[in-house]
Task: structure prediction
Amino acid sequence: MLPLPTRFAGFVPAFAPLFVSRSWRQAQLLLIGAILTAGRRTVASALAGWAARRIGG
Result:
């Protein structure tokens, strides 16, 4: 997984204790995707937001 953007690195790790370690990576993906998503925040749109960030869109 790509490293977290600097602006998210300060507060995203605060959620880590809420997840078991094996699901934390997926939780980060959905959290960042939800933050980056405009409009309705669904799992599909969160994943699309994350994918857009990865490819630079």
In short: The mean pLDDT is 75. The chain has three helices and no strands.
